[in-house]
Structure prediction request, 492 residues.
Amino acid sequence: MNAIELRGLEKSYEGFHLGPLDLDLPAGCILGLVGENGAGKTTTIRALLGIIKPDGGEASVLGAPVGPDMRQAKQDMGVVLDEVGFPAGLRAGQISRIMAAAYKNWDQSLFEKYLRDLDIPTDKKFSALSRGNRMKMGIAAALSHDAKLLILDEPTGGLDPVVRDEVVGLFSDFTRDPGHSILISSHIVSDLEKLCDYIAFLHKGRLLLCEEKDRLLEEYGLLQCDRAFLAGLAPGAVRSTRETPYHIEALVRRDAVPAGTDVRPVTIEELFVLLVKGDMQ
Amino acid sequence: MKTIWLADLYGSRRSRQLFTMLSMLFMVLAITSAATVTSLTFALCASAGAGMLPVVNLEAAEASRWDRCVQAMPCTRRQAVSARYLEALAVVGAVWAYGAALFCGKAALGGWTWAEVRLLTAFVPAAGLLSAALCLAVTFRMGWARGKFVFSVTVCVIGGSGAVTSLLGVSDAGLGAFAGSSAVLALPIAALALFIGSWALSVRWYEKREL
Prediction:
């Protein structure tokens, strides 16, 4: 069963078109949405939550079609939006009470534990918290009602590296339960590389590719060579190239280059940059 | 729905205090005024102003992005709309009850006739429900960015209601005649019908709106 399914999802704004997008998040897995600003990550997440209405296509979350009444499915979803929007004047205790009114499985003691672990001030109004602390509050709330699916839009934005590492650890712990899944979007590709089973690259509203992370890293490599060597490679071996002052850097399929060629492992960040910025072959 | 009520309750402490204070003040001014027209004007200010409290809550929700956050939680848009309309009913009901108690007290002491009390107690909920119906519907339809213009105009109309009544040539004698007619009882019923219509439209509009 898939925790999330998108089929031909489309949404248009002035000067921007998302999709058609087909995407699956298998239950028990973590899918990372990678893309530059304005690639369509937040639009995809908002469409999944019913915050915006898609122009076309279908979407379902935890088996429920996305629509005006997703209350049951949302009981099992923990969501952190790019701007965590609790009412400005509320303190942690009041936030806990309003969340308890919304979620059947709200666990106040677990929420308090996250507040302590993440070092979030409980005596300050939400509006007086730093951006990082607001984000941590949102993460603590999303993790405190026994959700089966986390939908996270840039959850590590604004966090310092130490806290980011801690938060990534919390997400990893969450997926120890085989029924738990995460959809996460982030600019910080290194976080996604640590965490994700699947990576989806969005660029200008189009899905460039969506594959298992390990397979991507296994399948692709970086080759530094000159133009003549590149021309001699089999058609389809090169996915993208980038010219530097000294050589050409090519993203290649490992199985399509001659044996013995020095192909360096590629990171997800390099893969993304080459797919977006490089010359597509 | 309870989530939205609680959030509004915790979040609107200051505006709630301000609205309560103003409503109480205007009601006291209403019962201490000599002319019925002036009393009516102050009573309308108290009620119509109180009807705006849920609009202020809605504005705060938009500003803090709580409106969007709620939609990521197990709450429907219908519930988000209904919560604010029920808040308006509760607030206007409270102002009406407070006003009615004051009016009855003054009538019992011989300060007013019961016809005047009937008139005032009919106008008070009508004004509150109408101001809430208008401002909530516009804000749910277009958001606070545009809804604030209607809100401001409504506040100006409430503030200038004394001038409006004198411009319209409303006199104590005219009000007395109206108070005696059965039309006065139709006023709150008509306002309630408009309020319900406004709620239905708001649900429809808000379900279509992109946040």
